[in-house]
Amino acid sequence: MTPSTATPKQAKKSNGSDFWMVFKKFVTQGTAIATPAPSGRYLVREMLKGINFDTAKVIVELGAGTGPITDILLKKVKPHTRLLIVEIEADFCERLRRRFPHAEIVQGDAAHLDKLLADRGVGEVDHMVSGLPMPSIPHPIRKAIFESSMKCMGPEGVFRQLTVMPYVYWNFYRHYFQDVSFKLVPVNLPPAGVYFCKKFKPDAADPKK
């Protein structure tokens, strides 16, 4: 896996087109997209804080969008780490494959994550990095995503979830995880944050609201 080699001019052009691509999709699809703009560098930095890239064997990104987190992940992962980028939107996948031709981009539904990974010979996952709009995803699909993720996550794994509604969904994630903490990133546009979730509750009752 090689990092992006875009020149500063190309990167600037890509950042601008990425913004409009995400914003347009946010306007047209609403709650199906987590944020009206790609994640800023401070949010990405916080999202990945605490990952030991020297020991991680498998990292999965869910809902990569245009790839601001993917870009940094590819620069940080070691040769022994398997990094899988899962995205359901076809146009986002096309953008990701053009931008990161050596990355393992998987177009698929996170509700079937265990099967997507099994088909690729991946068992246990050390870290999941999620940009999915989990609270606004319809209840049956959301429940399937968490159940599928639980089957794949290692016992010491961390589920990292970005949000542009800081603190609002703390209790929501407490339904699914035994240990939930939150880090605010006020300098992101819009202000955002990251939930750090550990130890899935196997008997979690999925909240419908």
TrEMBL record:
Assigned keywords, A-Z: Methyltransferase, Transferase
GO molecular function ontology, one term from the record: methyltransferase activity
Gene3D superfamilies associated with the record: Vaccinia Virus protein VP39
BP GO annotations: methylation
InterPro entries: Methyltransf_25 (IPR041698), SAM-dependent_MTases_sf (IPR029063)
One Pfam assignment: Methyltransf_25
Superkingdom assignment: Bacteria
CDD domains, alphabetized: AdoMet_MTases (cd02440)
Residue stretches making up the Methyltransferase domain: 59-157
SUPFAM superfamilies, sorted: S-adenosyl-L-methionine-dependent methyltransferases (SSF53335)
Name by which UniProt lists this protein: Methyltransferase domain-containing protein
Species in which this protein is naturally found: Limnoglobus roseus
